[in-house]
Amino acid sequence: MVRIAVSNYEKMSVLDIESGYFPSYTIHTLSKIEKKYPRNQFFILLGKDSFYFFKKWKNYKIILNKYNILVYPRIGYFSHPVFKYYKNIIFLKAPIIEISSSFIRKSIQEGKNMKPMLHAEVWYYMEKYNFSI
């Protein structure tokens, strides 16, 4: 479904690096991506709700010291004060949009119409294969 959602964006692509790995850790994924694309620079984009739990991630200090992290605002989440001293953490100033994959899944389970929130072809795919998420 992600491939469908980004199909019209020539500068976006989907890598299936985490398939078959459980549990899947970000540090391992980043390492694999770096080996595959050594000339590229990578950024991690997180919602502030995910960033709130960043200190619990496997090898978070390595990630923190090696990668740029973009943090998208979310209502009601705060960051650990130590993170303000890292220049590679960028807290984005962007409109707060109260939507997430969890919200969409929960709404679909409750029978709400989420069609306007999804790429039309993704919605079609979900209907075709009778996703009840």
Would you write up a description of this structure?
There is one protein chain. 34% of the residues lie in helices and 10% in strands. The two termini are 13 Å apart. With 133 residues, it is of the alpha/beta class. It has a three-stranded parallel β-sheet. It has six helices and three strands, in the order H-H-E-H-H-E-E-H-H.
Could you list the spans in which at least 5 consecutive residues all have pLDDT below 50? none
Shape designation? globular
Order of helices and strands: HHEHHEEHH
Q: Strand order, biggest sheet?
A: 1-2-3
Rounded average pLDDT: 86
Structural class: alpha/beta
Biggest sheet details: 3 strands, parallel
Compute the separation of the termini in Å.
13 Å
Helix percentage range: 25-40%
Relative strand content: 5-15%
* Tally of DSSP helical segments: 6
Number of DSSP-assigned strands: 3
Report Rg: 17 Å
Write the layout of secondary structure elements.
Blueprint: H1 2-6, H2 26-36, E1 43-47, H3 48-51, H4 60-66, E2 68-72, E3 89-91, H5 101-109, H6 120-128
Parallel strand pairs: 1-2, 2-3
List keywords for this structure.
133 residues, alpha/beta, three-stranded parallel β-sheet, 6 helices
